[in-house]
Amino acid sequence: MRVGFVVGQFPMLSETFVIGQMAGLLQRGFKVEVVCNGISEYNFADRQQEPLATLLARTRDWWGAAARLRPAIGRLPPKLYDKASTALDMSSVARLNACDVIVAHFGHNGARAARLKKWKRLTPPIVTIFHGYDVGVPLKERGLGRYNDLFEHGALNLTVNDYFRRVLIEAGAPESKVAVHHMGIDLEKIPYAWKSWRGATLQLISVCRLAEKKGIEFALRALGRLRTEAPALDWRYTIIGDGPLRPELEALAAELGIAGQVSFLGSLPHQDVKQWLKRSHAFVLPSVTAANGDVEGIPVALMEAMAAGLTVVSSTHSGIPELIEDRKTGFLAAERDVETLADRLRFIAEHPDECEHIAREARRKVEAEFDMQALDDDFAGILSRFSQSRLVA
Questions:
Q1: Most-buried pick from 21, 90, 188, 289 (CB within 10 A)?
Q2: Which residues on neighbouring strands pair with residue 203, listed in sequence order?
């Protein structure tokens, strides 16, 4: 069976879950084609190693040789841009029509494929996966009407959480065409290892892009409050990742008087990140809805931390409560609720023994619902059914 993936720029460090899903299909005997909106330089892994070597050999820019025109076309007025981009998209139709099914990651890529379907140029069924930005931002701007063609001509819309499923249905997607399919993690590569901080410094960590929706501002404000209310508590906070808010966050840590207990390490290789996680006790990610509407799906970083035995602290945001139950598999606070977040962090600092039970339950939760191998089996089954129905038709 041949699966055509339609994605944005490829490959992307922030979208390794896309590569993981492609690799899962390759392992199950599927053939994978990739059509993307620009081939990146990709400097965060060896392009010659699998699965990237195979995937990049089967990757084509939507516009082929005309991709060099993308900056100029991007400056056109919206109506002219739509006409020009659709015309250039046609150059990839033959490649996509050789596939049994199309998988589009993110709603805007699904809509792009659906436009070709509407014009009767694309024949395979389209399965679109919605992740977060593609739901929250258009919803904030002017609703999800931009997906009307996709709702009509797409075969299935998969959302990474149930919250998005409900939003799409409310926006007009046929309920029969919307289902939840979680992103998952490779549990075989993440051993569980509980580490108590009794009598030691509590090591807190965040690994994320330093952008608004990650909520790192509120983690810092909560720790500033904690330093004032419980100055005897011994903790350190390590932040791995880079992004537009880094200077602002560093200044905030200094303003709160906690700069000496907070380290900004910037982006690190994956192997280094894994070592930092092994040295840490609790993972902090108090996500929020950004001003432009951007939201999380269910962050993979939280799943990985839970699998590894860290105590997680997050927020009642988007699909996160589908992963974390407060005081059962982790700790939650409302978005931007600094007081509750500080209370949760103080409880963790003062009750390591109770957190051990929570960490064990967190690992069980991830094993039961976010195991990449089981999810890849399910996904392969979904795609196979679409291929079979196409053959019957």
A1: 21
A2: 236
Angle, CA of 274, 261 and 257, to the nearest 5° = 145
Question: Which class for 28: exposed (0-12), middle (13-18), buried (19 or more C-beta within 10 A)?
Answer: middle
Return the exposure string of 286-319: e unless at least 16 CB atoms fall within 10 Å of the residue's CB, then b. bbbbbeeebbbbbbbbbbbbbbbbbbbbbbbbbb
What pTM, to 2 d.p., does this model score? 0.92
Q: Which domains does the chain have, with CATH numbers?
A: 2-184+372-392 (3.40.50.2000), 188-369 (3.40.50.2000)
pLDDT in tens, the chain (393 residues): 999 999 999 998 778 899 999 999 999 999 999 999 999 886 666 778 889 999 999 999 999 999 999 999 999 998 898 889 989 999 999 999 999 999 999 999 999 999 999 999 999 999 999 999 999 999 999 889 999 999 999 999 999 999 999 999 999 999 999 999 999 999 999 999 999 999 999 999 999 999 999 999 999 999 999 999 999 999 999 999 999 999 999 999 999 999 999 999 999 988 899 899 999 999 999 999 999 999 999 999 999 999 999 999 999 999 999 999 999 999 999 999 999 999 999 999 999 999 999 999 999 999 999 999 999 999 999 999 987 555 444
Using DSSP, state whether 61 is helix, strand or coil: strand
